[in-house]
Amino acid sequence: MTWKNRHTWIAGLGIIILTNALALAGLAYNRSGEPDARVMLSERELKLPYYWGRKRENSGLALTLNWRMNSASDNKSYYSSRYSPAPWLNQAKLALLGFPVEEATGHAENRRRLNHSLPREAFLVLEFNGPAYQAELTRQQMLSKQQQALADRNPGNQKLAKAAKDSQERLQHEQYKASRLFVIDVGLDAQVLRQHYPDSARYIVQRGSIRARVNKQDDQQWVVQGFVSEIAITRVNIPLQYRSAFEPFMIDDAGKQARDPNYQVTLAYGQRLEPWVVRVESGK
Fold it and tell me: Segment Disordered: which positions (predicted)?
């Protein structure tokens, strides 16, 4: 090995050691002190990878955070999508985040500037099994009731009968399968948000990003809308000691699953608002 190659190798090794040391220090700091949040989620909010059990050569397992958005109050759609505008992201909140929303609807140049603005980093509040989920459940109950009443008034109408059946199935999905984890608020100060949402067993403060757009509505009016672009951390690694709790839910080579997923995972969010697993319980 030449002098140059030897020193290059030593420098590379030093960078690796330093990087690992910084990562371990960050991990230790995140888990120091009292967690900012400690929330028990289920298979509804933490999803197994679709290939779990097929790629047996890879023993790693990470669950994906399944978060949602509430529908707007005037939304008659059967589905609520995380890609829809956030009804709570009003113009005042977007201005607080630094978006040029003032007079954004008045002129084409203002609309263009806002629509081409980059997402802004912020802190997001996620609520588990709270008023946001109850509002969505109530909405599905109302839609199902309306659809069933319409079918009852038109006996023999197969199209309406099928629509009522589909609506009932959507309601059951909402009751027993759909995620109960909703993004409900945004801000620039994590501590201020925690003061507003002190229940650390229900509310998670997470880093994320927001984007703003001006869109034309059905009434031809321009409206400023805000969207959640992303949540910073949506994958949660499962430590090796908890891996066996998920083995009953593996998919075999034929693509079949012996049991429907049924588990609870308690996550702690630390000083850096990063999660780690502290407990896993598998349903019977």
Answer: 149-169
Tokens linked to 127: 């609520």
191, 114: one domain: yes
Cα separation, 58 vs 64, in Å, equals 17
% the chain with pLDDT above 90: 59
pLDDT band at 256; cut points 50, 70, 90: confident
Q: Are residues 120 and 231 in the same domain?
A: yes
CB atoms within 10 A of CB 246: 20
How many independent structural domains does the chain possess?
3
239 phi and psi angles, rounded to 5 deg = -60, 155
pTM for the model stands at 0.85
Q: Where are the beta strands (DSSP E) in the chain?
A: 37-42, 46-47, 62-65, 120-128, 181-187, 203-216, 222-231, 235-237, 263-269, 275-282
Number of neighbouring beta carbons within 10 Å of residue 217: 9
pLDDT digits (tens, 9 = 90+) for 200-233: 999 999 999 999 999 887 777 888 999 999 999 9
d(CA 66, CA 202): 15
Residue 221 and residue 96 share a domain: yes
104 and 200 housed in the same domain: yes
Q: Are residues 156 and 244 in the same domain?
A: no
Task: Mark whether 17 and 144 lie in a shared domain.
Answer: no
CA distances, 8 to each of 4, 14, 15, 20 (Å): 6, 10, 11, 19
